[in-house]
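Full entry
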Amino acid sequence: MTNTKKIGKIVIIALIVLFALITIFNCFTIVEAGHTGVVVTLGKVNEGVLQEGIHVKAPFVQEVVKIDNRIVKLEVDTEAFSKDLQTVATTLAINYRVDTSKSYSIYKNIGADYETVLVNPAVNEVLKAITAQYTAEESVTNRSLISDGLVEGLNDKLNASGLYVTDVNIINFDFSEAFINAIEEKQVAQQQLLKAETEKQTAITNAEAEAEATRIRAQAEADANNLIKASLSEAVIRSKFYDTWDGKLPQAMGSDSVITNIDGGNAQ
């Protein structure tokens, strides 16, 4: 019986020590780097937050909820209609963070699932509003403008709640097969038109070059003829004639049987 009492006392002491250790451990909480702690006392959210480090709390009656204040990446797949009523399936990568000073109000008013409650609906709403401002084709060529518009629009909706969007990246735009085929046909038509315009311009340029070459040749020939003409005086012509004459008078018989010699005399 004595041994049983001793064992019972040991068990009681062990339980007391265990309870004391549990109580001691529950008196402290550690808030990790990049987080804040929201203190909940018997279900009531206390104002203010616990910063990084170790903190004392009331055991069993207080709970510390850790809120991640680092930049969080969220991927969202959604659909919207463009200005020309095309369905645009979009995949977005959104970087956002929770304001440390408003961690308690976010948890109090929204809860820990603020991403599902606030961020996702805001992304869908803002994206649909911005996508409606552009045609489907313009959405592709204005990705940066749409990204900037999303950042601005999301911050307008979320900042008051303590959520701040730092960046939005458009990972992908996807369109219907019919629209993609229409774009490809348009590109082919544009390429063919550009080729035809290029060939036309080349033909015009070649014709203009040939006409200019012809004009230059004609001008050169005319200038050469003028130089020759200017250099042939009557004396030069007579001198060249005598240089090449063989001494024989040319004879010609006219209808009146008159022979004309080189000096202009007449022979009967």
